[in-house]
Amino acid sequence: MLDGNLTGLKPSQIKALERIDRRRIPATQVVTAELARFLTELSFDLRRQVGILVDRQGEILHVIVGDDREILLPNLARFGLGRSGLRGLRCIHTHLKGESLTQDDLTDLALLRLDFMVAIAVGERGLPGRVHYAHLLPSNPEGKSVEVLSLPSVHEFDLDFLRFIASLESEMERKMAETFDLSDTREKAILISAGGEPRPELEDSLNELAELARTADVVVLDRVVQRTQKIHPRFLMGEGKMREVIIRALQQGATLLIFDQDLSPGQVRSISEMTDMKVIDRTQLILDIFARRAHTLDGKVQVEVAQLKYLMPRLLGKGTAMSRLMGGIGGRGPGETKLEIDRRRIRERLTRLEKQLEELARGRRQRRQRRIRAEVPIVSIVGYTNAGKSTLLNALTQSAVFTEDLLFATLDTATRRLRFPEEREVIITDTVGFIRKLPKSLLGAFKATLEELEDADLLLHVVDISAERFEEQIAAVERILQDLELAGIPRLLVFNKIDRLPPGEVGALCRRFDAIPVSALERATFTALLEELQRRFWPRDADPADLKPDPSL
Predict the structure, then answer these.
(1) Parent domain of 52
(2) What's residue 329's pLDDT?
(3) Residues 93 and 50 sit within 8 Å (Cβ to Cβ)
(4) What does the alpha-carbon distance between residue 145 and residue 165 come to, in Å, rounded to a whole number?
(5) Global pTM value
(6) pLDDT tens digits along 262-277
(7) Are 168 and 42 contained in the same domain?
(8) Sign of the CA dihedral 277, 106, 9, 14?
(9) How many structural domains comprise the chain?
(10) Which of 303, 325, 359 is the last residue of a domain?
């Protein structure tokens, strides 16, 4: 296949280029002297770099014509990576000025995971001169990723290519096996965060992203934090830095790049053009978790609505520019038709789902009205994700709502009854956990579930007191309650997981924040919470003597 800069070439020159891919290289050789001479003479005649891509059987798959400084390699996505991380292709090209391998050559070698990158100098009268070549290295303590070598002549290239590559791949696989289990089929990711926030805040957000990845059953291999005052419009952190990150990810065997910041459709496209790895952002990761965790019809519909709303602008990325030309040149044809069909189908599906959500919401409103008419107090548990809300609900009501040490373990609203003496009871509702940087589109999609909070007489704000930055989590939940216009509902702060802290420290924190301490795993710690609920809903019957703080705290 002939690619590249063919402008201005004579028919005879194009025919000469087309004849190259009829040749074969013995599988044990990197390049033959005859083929090297043919390439340099042709390059000398064209005054342009000429290159070839060769597979391990010695078949020439691509012939590439560049300019006098470089060649541009085609998209190689159809050639997959092997277990060692190499693609099974080598690039052999000419250098008109006899220079060594350029930084672009070495970047292409690392980014595209080529077996070899070879540059043959074009000498006098087009004869082949010095040969420069490079290959990737297994991970090593020195951090050296590429070895660059040189030979005075192509005739001295006596390397047994197949034996060398087999040995290199074996060592690469061995090094990878030392890092992680190669039989583990889970996605392996590099987490990336870039922004102008202070580094501790970026680190905290990245820690949370790591927990989200663990929840999504993704193996995190590495993290990259880049402080930058200006977000790059195409690559988030600058093209050069982005290339470094991708090379580092490929060296470690990553299959996925997860960005802590939301990526625009253009940024996803630009980064994806650099690498075969999947590229997603925080929102897409959360949506994937939601899709796994939703079990009820309500939850599933809400997740699909959120996913379709996320997908819409990414379909519009190409369609918007084309729609400006509707009726003119470039506005006709199957490309635009396909986009319009996809967009129309998504809109129609969204319309049906939103009607279904409204019907489900109507049923919930009727159930809530019945509870209100029965004058049963309603308590809604809110809080940061993985704060222990469902565990607390189970312990209080002796029920079995699903719990797990993962973010967003609960997506579907659960309602239970908490019984008090004298035939009194309270309805307690568990809700989806909140999180920092929760996109508004997701809040909108889960508004139907969060409507349960509107009728609550009390919001039980559960906090994981053992979390390193629990104050920021409290603030994040308060901000979301403000956004949902629920800040006017009375709230009771409950510090959970007190068994993980010294008693004296728990007491000081509870006094400082006016909170009630509990451990959802120890029912004996619920006394103060139950007394406070009784005091709030039936104040006449509350015994002031029972409300004194526990002196042991």
Answers:
(1) 2-179
(2) 35
(3) yes
(4) 16
(5) 0.72
(6) 888 888 888 888 888 8
(7) yes
(8) negative
(9) 4
(10) 359
End-to-end C-alpha distance for the chain, whole angstroms? 77
Look up residue 154 and give its two tokens. Answer: 């192509």
390 and 252 belong to one structural domain: no
pLDDT tens per residue, range 10-21: 999 999 999 998
Is 297 domain-assigned?
no
| Domain assignment of residue 298, yes or no | no
Which tokens in the block code for residue 375? 């004058």
Tokens (6 digits) for 166: 């087999």
Q: What is the DSSP letter of 525?
A: G
Residue pair 134/149 in contact by the 8 Å Cβ criterion: yes
Structure tokens at 316: 């519009």
> Both 57 and 163 in a single domain?
yes
285 backbone φψ class: left, alpha, beta (φ>0; ψ -120 to 50): alpha
Q: Is the pLDDT of residue 418 over 70?
A: yes
pLDDT at 404 over 60: no
In a domain, 464, yes or no: yes
Q: Which of 261, 297, 217, 304 is nearest to 437 (CA)?
A: 261
What pLDDT digit, counting tens, does each position of 107-148 carry?
999 999 999 999 999 998 899 999 999 999 887 777 788 999
Residues 282 and 324 in one domain: no
Where are the strands (E) in 187-281, listed by range? Answer: 188-195, 219-227, 256-259, 278-281
Write the CA distances from 394 to 14, 283, 294, 553, integer angstroms. Answer: 75, 29, 19, 25
3-state SS class at 174? helix
Instruction: Indicate whether 522 belongs to any domain.
Output: yes
Query: Residue 513 pLDDT more than 80?
Result: yes
From the number of C-beta atoms within 10 Å of its C-beta (0-12, 13-18, 19+), residue 429 rates as: buried
Q: In whole angstroms, give the CA distance from residue 210 to residue 200.
A: 15
285 and 421, same domain (yes or no): no
Backbone angles phi, psi at 282, to 5 degrees: -60, -45
Nearest CA to 271 out of 285, 286, 283, 259 is that of 259
Residue ending a domain, choose from 290, 321, 347? 290
Separation CA 193–CA 415 (nearest Å): 38
Q: Mean pLDDT, to the nearest integer, of 358-383?
A: 76
Given a cut of 80, is residue 43 above it in pLDDT? yes
Where do the DSSP E strands lie in 145-218?
Answer: 146-151, 188-195
